[in-house]
């Protein structure tokens, strides 16, 4: 989970879903798996955060032009995270791909460490719990399918019908999360608008 939360693209599905499956079989404690996964996510996120915090601004100022990023983009990012860093970090932890990189703008904007840790933990806990419970459900639904078969369901090779069904169910979960995060984002925007016009 620490690797998944860093910039290295290791999907958390490959780790936490099998963990939930093993917990259903009594080979692992599901709460321990969730706690370990959550703090593992925080550890990886903190690596990105501190890298961006320490050298992010210097890198953007010196080399940002080669990546179509100028100092004014950095200033915009800082202003945005000063206002909306908490909700952005929380929601970002629940969105595929985004969760790998959300720590970088937080570090660039020098978001307060305790806030970053708190909202990273909250988002990671929800995501890890969803994956673990999904793994548990797979065990009760598909029976003795095996950890390797579950993990390879998220690869790109040939899959049997069970693996295709697992991947499809995971898509439903991701769509549900995205819809929930859009709703939360809209509620946040509405709240900010109402607060501004008081």
Structural commentary:
With 198 residues, the protein is mainly α. The chain has one domain. 78% of the residues lie in helices and 0% in strands. It contains nine helices and no strands. It has helices at 2-5, 13-24, 30-63, 71-92, 98-101, 103-108, 113-142, 147-152, 161-196. α2 packs across α7 (113-142), α3 packs across α7 (113-142) and α4 (71-92) crosses α7. The longest helix is centred in the last third of the chain and has 36 residues, at 161-196. The chain starts with a helix and ends with a helix.
| Overall domain count | 1
Number of strands: 0
Based on Cα principal axes, name the global outline. Answer: elongated
SSE sequence, one letter per element? HHHHHHHHH
User: Which stretches of 5+ consecutive residues score pLDDT under 50?
Assistant: none
Main sheet, how many strands, which sense, barrel? none
Contiguous helical run count: 9
Mean of residue pLDDT?
A: 83
Radius of gyration: 19 Å
> Helical proportion?
over 70%
Distance between the termini: 42 Å
Determine the structural class based on helices, strands and strand pairing: mainly alpha
Strand content: under 5%
Brief summary:
By secondary structure, the protein is an all-alpha fold. It is built from nine helices and no strands. The protein has helices at residues 2-5, 13-24, 30-63, 71-92, 98-101, 103-108, 113-142, 147-152, 161-196.
Summary keywords:
9 helices; mainly alpha; 198 residues; 78% helix
